[in-house]
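DM between two lab members

TW: hey, do you still have the Pantothenate synthetase entry open?
JB: yeah, one sec
JB: this one, 293 aa:
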Amino acid sequence: MTVLTKPEVIDTIDELRNSLCLAKQNAAARGGDAHVVLVPTMGALHAGHRELVRRAVAVGDIVVVSVFVNPLQFGVNEDLDTYPRTLDADVAALAEEGAAFVFAPHAQEMYPDGASSTRLTAGAVGGLYEGAARPGHFDGMLTVVAKLLNIVEPDIAVFGQKDAQQVFLVERMVADLNLRVRIEVVPTVREDNGLARSSRNRNLDEPARTAARSLFVGLTAAAAAAHSGVPAAIVAAHAVIGAAPLVKLDYLVVVHPHTFLPVDDDYRGQARMLVAAVVGSTRLIDNISLDIP
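TW: and the structure you got?
JB:
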């Protein structure tokens, strides 16, 4: 496998397509493979993103990391203007991980006529959980992911399990639209105290960071209690998270992995518990797999 340690930063669609075509031709001329892998991000990269890129390098040959703060994913009063933009630091980090290209377009490049009139819809599931808190967010996410898949035409795209609802919706979009791409899902990357890695963690002060650990501890307690059924798992999580200071719970739900709809109390089988809470002033999400015998 050829690893390019100095990523080429590209900000236009045409240039990226031309560079990818040349990279694939060069790989073929050397007798090597040219599997393209896309890692879509909004930048402000942390250790979780690095793990996605490492997986991409492991499963492919030409790795493209997109860095684009997608305005379609942000609603009224959300943090589009203040969302961290750290392209220089992101490129430096990606140089260490072996990405070949960094695609960092401006909004006008992706949406030359303003907000796109043609958009994908995330359907009913897109209006639940994170979608209820952020109306239209998942429509915007799917629209930009579809655009990136069409621009890059990767063989594989890599996403993180931390954003479980996003992963479900992307996988469903790929299946529904018969897109020729394989989705690789990387397990949630956590800090030493169990807190799921997130760009928003930088907004936590020390008391909030300590309190935020309750999300992971509560999920872990739920997984341990799952042998007694769905209600027991929910009670176990609530007992931990509800007792934590500075934590305002938004939702805690157990969903079916194939529908992402809430399961009944008597459900048996694989499931996933989702949690979202505002810790201090920062909204955090997390999830865990449950085995309910």
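TW: got it. The mean pLDDT is 95. DSSP finds nine helices and nine strands in the chain.
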